Amino acid sequence: MKFIECENVKYSYPAEGEINKSEEWLKFAVDGVDFDALRGEFIAVLGHNGSGKSTFARLLNRIFKPSEGNIFVEGLDASDDKNIWDIRKKVGMVFQNPDNQIVATVVEEDVAFGVENIGIESDEIVERVEKALKAVDMLEDAKKAPHLLSGGQKQRVAVAGILAMKPDCIIFDEATAMLDPIGRKKIIDIILSLNKKENVTVILITHFMEEALLADRVFVMEKGKVALKGTPKEVFMNAGEIKRLGLEMPVGADIGNRIRKLGFNVRGDIIYDDELVDYILKTGLKNIEYIKLDNKRNFKDKIIEVKNVSYVYGEKSVFEKTALKNVSFDIYKGEIAALIGHTGSGKSTLVQTLNGLIKPSEGLILYDGKNIWGNDFDIKNIRKQVGIVFQYPENQFFEETIFKDALFGPLNMGFSEKDAKEKVIEAFAMVGIDEALFEKSPFELSGGQKRRAAIAGVIAMSPNVLILDEPTAGLDPLGKNEILKNIRDMRDRLNMTVVMVSHSMEEVCGIADSIIVMSDGEILICGDCDEVFSKNAFLEKAGIYPPNVNVIFKKLIDKGVSVPLNIYNVDEAVEFFKERLCSS
Description:
Radius of gyration: 25 Å
Mean pLDDT: 89
CATH architecture of the largest domain: 3-Layer(aba) Sandwich
Number of domains: 3
Low-confidence stretches: 17-26
Oligomer: single chain
CATH superfamily of the largest domain: P-loop containing nucleotide triphosphate hydrolases
Largest sheet: 6 strands, mixed
Helix content: 25-40%
CATH class of the largest domain: Alpha Beta
Distance between the termini: 44 Å
Strand content: 15-25%
Shape: globular
CATH topology of the largest domain: Rossmann fold
């Protein structure tokens, strides 16, 4: 039975000031979509930022009303205003940023909010809230204030709030985008449990191809239209089209496709890691020694030294929480240092100590050998030398246009208007912001454009150190790769030191010279990619999984195949197999 049916659905956002004049509506954000979902089906929706995924999702649970076409939710017409509340009871939504969804000051009250609003009796509300919090492993935090939780914990609270309402369908709008690997796995496990055990229809909007592989069907959107649809195999066999749409192939499928292009007899329908492993086992590998090229840079001069730093939030209050415990490490001039660890491990707190936004409870932060909190150091100066771009760039903007916003920093530092404008134009060019966007409001930009504009605003102040807190979170593969390229180019052109917080191990191994692993406010290990990912015990404690390519090589080792473990990306994997695969 079809739970949701969509026929030629279109939606356009009203032009500002012309909301009631349909002839003034802008181009369609959703443009002629046909879509259906069976009860109990798991559907993944893919597409680049701005492709119309989130707008379409909001049509399905009647946050938006279709401009044209028909949407039926279990027979209820979404165009009929009297059906709004019945549809929203049936179709719940979990948003990308949990802060946009949490409304109460206590976790259990927030989870109860939606249930209360659909008229459930008090005794049943208590039962539902407890069951929902238990399902997402947050029952012990029921009495906490949401603002004291980590990002991953907040997201689980948001999921619990929807679970408690017992909808027949849940839409997850990039609900795993901001989470660490363990947090992401927990949410996916919850989704699979709801889908398989409770027959909840799941619509998952995601940029993670490995999540899409778990679905029954996949829809790919482009410019408001459905560009591809089918089973995961049917969709991901179209490697050329997937790339054209600005998306990535799943790792196993990407390696298989690229090996096939080299002349090997690889089946075109290999999309899962285990299928690739089976192919390699059947084909066999030649016994050729593997020597990885050493591309390590040699960094000599320390620019930031962290010595025995501890920090306690709400010290000597009922909310006291130790965020950092005796942390020590060094960052060198010109390097890209990655800071990784589970959500709530202290990464964001730590980077805010590096430019003086937070004063350590104990310990020292040295910049160029000087204590930034010493009497002979002007703390304002560190914020000129060490710039920071926060995880949610929209929280960093405050001016009407991105040009004015980026101009604020240099002007505030004492540059003339002429010099400040030159710095802003140069910074925008460096991160790929086109002149046509200069006068745009920050809130008119896509997620990737916001990140680049926020980075440019900091670069315009000419810092020696740039701190980026999750610079690619929530971006599509194309936007992510552009940001990473910008980071590398800036380092190489300006000899800028970069400290990057990330949850993506693929990104970390592809860009970082050094990696700092955190867990529960402490440093577990520091080193390069090979040093860090050879320490499995430390990584498990930190909730870190190796890159997806590395997982494939680990599976081969488990099958008795002698392969190296220090291969972290698809390019390296293809190069390895090209020389060693036997003909098939």
